[in-house]
Structures are given as structure tokens and as C-alpha cells.
Design goal:
Helix 14 crosses helix 15. Strands 1, 2, 3, 6, 14, 15 and 16 form a seven-stranded mixed β-sheet that branches. Strands 19-20-18-17-23-24 form a six-stranded mixed β-sheet, sandwiched between helices. It has a three-stranded antiparallel β-sheet with strand order 4-5-8. The protein is an alpha/beta fold. It has 18 helices and 24 strands.
Length: about 500
């Protein structure tokens, strides 16, 4: 059997499965979060380790077995884990949604001539939240910690290090650092040299690269004994949570779209060739299955909807009722959901706004619909960017928000696409386990493709499918236009992010 582990922002999940995708056991442990008014969002890597230990033991106990052949780790992208010469953690890890490094990100872009020049030179445009600006922030704000840096890891890489003692990186998660060229699939040492002024310490701190279907190594004997795993258990390369979510939804071939509604929202579609967007809105990431995964991320999603429901004294389950009772466009009420700043559009210091309030639409149901629409319209703008004028026909929706049938129906009506939900909700865990199957098969001398394994393990929940209602196409088109007008009125710089089809 195989084990998938997903270390997210809110907690760590573990899933034990057979090679055909049959789930045998699950585990979960919540994470704490360090938040500051400066925009800092941090976690101690030791919290991830303890959550991994607890969730894996719970999943194995539930399965009643321990014969795990291989495991894979999915991790939240962009996080910065710094180790000293003794391989000890230097400071808490800055996370993907940490926005206090916005000035440093701008400084890095200026150093290389701006967004377009950086993108042309290195194949990607770093946005606030990527790892690279975090390094400059540490240099400027914590020089004593900066001087101690000897190893730089992403969250999933740190957990692989804890499991195996090996430091390795793979192209998918590495794509989100800002110092990796996803087109050429290689580190861009020049970017790091600009931060440490050519000393070369940062470049020397990067892990060696492996392929997406490679193994990092075997689980360390003491870790295997602690977790209850065989000492022969292999650890696959792992990857970022979006890359693993793609694998877990069968998004390993062209034509498949995955839309994730979690704390943040992402939308992505597998490609056999690199995808370039000069504006930097579409991240031209590599996949963790051998190809590329053009992706758009918004930083505000279920956190905004949940906060709105809580403020109104409503349960999350009541959202569906509000979406049913209130028409598209919420009778003119528009919610710009930028509670944590925003990445797409690139507005790291933006604040949320509720606009168009009247005596008719100032109700809890209207506010709930407006919150869901605000989150949805932002990510659908990103989907338009990825599709570049093409229309989506089928979209797989994952994450906590996708559990809402009303939200899935909204997406179907607004896009004109059929919205499907996977049988296994924890697509990150499933994707990590599928990658573990592929890596184990390769190491065993009987290679399997990602498409082969995903076809068996990633199944669809037929009863959760939502089909678009043509009569709502125009109302949603008008609602999206109103959202865009209010967005541009408050943030004129967002005009560059208007989707091509708008």
C-alpha cells in the first residue's frame, strides 16, 4: 500500500491507499499560525513534523496495516525554511500568504528591470508570497539570521529531509521560488547572487534537483520505527500542494482544468509545453508529473466566505440557501474580498471593500452571495487568462469551498462549464500517494505513467456534478462586469489584469 501526506496551511492530512486508489485509512492534525498586522504569516516547521507524526499514525491505525511501500509529501508552496550549518531551523517559516515582503519583491523586480524584463530573462515573474522576496526580507530585517543560512528548503522539502535525511528539490514546487527557471528547469543563481551581493552563500544553499518520478530515498530507521513504517519504505520527490492536487484530480494530461477553493484559490491546467504570460498573472509553473502547470492563485477564498458567515452568525451550511434565494449579482452588491492583500490581481497591500449597498440588498443573504461571487469572479478572471480565449468545458472543483453544491452550481453557471467533484476530496494527499506509486514502480523496474495510475485512483463523484443553466449566462456576465468596474475604480492598476475575453 501507499501513503500520501499533505502539509497545508491549516493542518496536515494523511491518506493510506491501495495502488488502485482504494482508501484504507486517514489522519489529520491542525496547525497553529503566527499572524502579525505587518502582513506576516509564519509557522514553526516543528509543528509540521508533529502534525505529520500524529496524522500518519492515525491513518495507519485506521488502515490496520503498516506495509507501506512508498510515500509522497505534498506541501504548501512558496514557504521559506532556513537551516544553519548544523541543519537546524533558524527561524519560523514564512508562508505563501505572507505579504510583508511586498517591498522586497518590488525591489528585486526593479533590480532586473521590471516584470517583463525579469520574466523574459528567467521565465517567470515573482509575485509577493514567492520565496525569493522572503530571503531579501530576512537580509534587511534579520541580518544575524541571514548570516547563518546554509540551506534553503520549501515545506515539502523540509519534511522529506526529516523523513530521509536527504535534501532534494523537484521542478514543480521549485517553480514557485522566483529563483528557478520553469522553462529550462534549472536554478537561477543570478537572482540569489543579487541578494547576497555575489557571495554565493544562497546559491550554495539550494538542494539538488530530482525528477518528478524519482525517489528521494528511504525513510530513516529511527523515523520508520517512530511512525510504524517499514525501513524499506521509499519517499518520492513530492511537490507543491497545487501540483499534487493536479495529480490527484487526473490533471496530468491536456484538456483538464482544476479549480481549488481552499484558504487561497487556484486554477490550473496541465500543458505539455511551457506557457508564458508577459503580465506575470499566469504562473508558468512546472507540474510534479513531468510537464507544466500554468496556474493562477488568489489569496482570498474560503477564509473570506467563512469569516463573512461567522460575522453574520451563519453556519457555512447556510451559504447554499443564500445562493439559492439571491439572484446573480446580489442586486448590485459587490464584495472585493482582499482581506489579506491580493496576488491576482497583484495588489499585495489592497484592502477588502463592500460596494453598491442599498436598503434592498443590505441583508445577510446578499452579503453571503456577494462574498462568494467576489472570490469566484477573481479566480475566474485567472481562468480566462489561462485559457487565452478558449472555453472550459469541464472543470474539477476541489477544496473546502467545493463541498458546497451551491458554490459549484455558481461556477457552472458563470463559466458555462460542467463542474465535477472528485470522489476523493483530499486531492493533495491522493496526488502525493499516486506520485509515490509511480516513483516506487520506477524504482522497482516496472515504470508506470502518471496518467495510468491517476486513471485508476482519481475517480469522479457523479452525484456531485453541476451542469450550467444557460438562462443564467447573461446575469453572471453582467455581475462579473460590475465586479470588474468596481475593482478598476478602486485599483486602476488592476486594469492590466482584465481577462482577454472581457
Amino acid at each position: 500500500m501507499f501513503l500520501g501526506i499533505d502539509c497545508g496551511t491549516q493542518g496536515t492530512k494523511a491518506l493510506v491507499m491501495e495502488a488502485n486508489g482504494a482508501v484504507l485509512g486517514r489522519g489529520y492534525r491542525k496547525h497553529a499560525l503566527i499572524e502579525r498586522s505587518t502582513g506576516a504569516r509564519e509557522q514553526e516547521p516543528s509543528w509540521w513534523v508533529e502534525a505529520l507524526r500524529s496524522s500518519v499514525k492515525e491513518a495507519l491505525e485506521a488502515s490496520g496495516r503498516s506495509d507501506v511501500l512508498a510515500l509522497g509529501v505534498s506541501g504548501q508552496q512558496h514557504g521559506m525554511v532556513l537551516l544553519d550549518e548544523s541543519k537546524q531551523v533558524i527561524r519560523p517559516a514564512k508562508l505563501w500568504n505572507d505579504t510583508e515582503t511586498a517591498p522586497q519583491n518590488e525591489a528585486i523586480l526593479r533590480r532586473f528591470g521590471g516584470k517583463q524584463a525579469f520574466g523574459k530573462r528567467f521565465g517567470i515573474v515573482p509575485l509577493t508570497g514567492y520565496t525569493v522576496s522572503k530571503l531579501l526580507w530576512v537580509k534587511e530585517n534579520e541580518p544575524e539570521n541571514f548570516a547563518r543560512i546554509r540551506h534553503i528548503l520549501l515545506p515539502h522539502e523540509y519534511l522529506n529531509f526529516w523523513l530521509t535525511g536527504q535534501m532534494r528539490a523537484e521542478p514543480g514546487d521549485a517553480s514557485g521560488t522566483g529563483y528557478f527557471n520553469p522553462v529550462r528547469r534549472e536554478w537561477q543563481f543570478e537572482v540569489l547572487d543579487a541578494i547576497d551581493e555575489g557571495v554565493g552563500i544562497l546559491s550554495a544553499a539550494l538542494p539538488a534537483l530530482v525528477h518528478a518520478d524519482d525517489c528521494v530515498g528511504e525513510v530513516l530507521p529511527e523515523v520508520a520505527a517512530d511512525l510504524g513504517l517499514p525501513r524499506s519504505c521509499l519517499v518520492s520527490a513530492g511537490g507543491g500542494d497545487n501540483m499534487m492536487g493536479a495529480i490527484g484530480t487526473g490533471n496530468v494530461r491536456e484538456g483538464v482544468v482544476t479549480l481549488s477553493l481552499g484558504t487561497s484559490s487556484t486554477v490550473y491546467s496541465y500543458s505539455e509545453t511551457p506557457v508564458q504570460d508577459p503580465s506575470g498573472t499566469v504562473a508558468p509553473f512546472c507540474s510534479s508529473s513531468g510537464g507544466w502547470l500554468p496556474l493562477v492563485c488568489t489569496m482570498n477564498a474560503t477564509n473570506v466566505v467563512t469569516a463573512t458567515a461567522t460575522l453574520l452568525g451563519k453556519s457555512v451550511e447556510e451559504i447554499d440557501g443564500a445562493l439559492t434565494r439571491i439572484p446573480p449579482g446580489a442586486d448590485g452588491l459587490v464584495f472585493l474580498p482582499f482581506l489579506n492583500g491580493e496576488r491576482t490581481p497583484d495588489l499585495p497591500t489592497a484592502q477588502g471593500a463592500i460596494l453598491g449597498i442599498t436598503s434592498n440588498n443590505f441583508t445577510p443573504d446578499h452579503l453571503l452571495r456577494a462574498a462568494v461571487e467576489g472570490v469566484s469572479f477573481g479566480i475566474l478572471n485567472g481562468l480566462d487568462r489561462i485559457l487565452q480565449g478558449r472555453e472550459a468545458t469541464v472543470v474539477q472543483a476541489i477544496g473546502g469551498g467545493a463541498r458546497s453544491r451551491g458554490w459549484r452550481q455558481l461556477l457552472a453557471d458563470a463559466t458555462g462549464a460542467t463542474i465535477q467533484a472528485p470522489m476523493e476530496e483530499e486531492s493533495g494527499c491522493l496526488g502525493a500517494a499516486i506520485q509515490a506509486v509511480v516513483a516506487w514502480a520506477k524504482a522497482d523496474g516496472n515504470p508506470l505513467s502518471f496518467a495510468e495510475v491517476a486513471a485508476r485512483a482519481a475517480q469522479i463523484r457523479e452525484d456531485a456534478t453541476c451542469v450550467p443553466r444557460p438562462e443564467l449566462s447573461i446575469p453572471y456576465k453582467n455581475a462579473r462586469a460590475a465586479y470588474q468596474r468596481h475593482l478598476e475604480a478602486l485599483y486602476p492598476e488592476a486594469r492590466q489584469d482584465v481577462p482577454p475575453s472581457a
